[in-house]
Write a structure and sequence with these properties.
82 residues, mainly beta, five-stranded antiparallel β-sheet, 5 strands
């Protein structure tokens, strides 16, 4: 999980964020989605692959074994409480 930079506004419901993972050793990119949640002041949780043929949840070994030089990009929007 990733915490959000500011607490979400009251009534904030689940939203989707976009992610791109780069496996630098194989020069491959993987697209995924994550859900925002209001739990613990706002977090992104359950990153999952965009591919229709897999339901892999991203973690330390998926979509690849993370190593030095690999990168995770994320973007999304939400309304902050203040």
């Amino acid at each position: 999980m990733f915490t959000l930079p500011a607490t979400p506004a009251t009534g904030f419901s689940f939203r989707i964020a976009s992610f791109d993972a780069l496996d630098s050793s194989a020069s491959l990119h993987y697209g995924g989605r994550g859900l925002y949640s209001t739990v613990n002041g706002g977090v992104v949780r359950s990153l999952i692959s965009d591919r229709a043929d897999t339901t892999t949840i991203w973690d330390s070994v998926a979509p690849f074994v993370w190593a030095a030089g690999d990168v995770l990009y994320g973007s999304g929007r939400y309304e902050a409480a203040s």
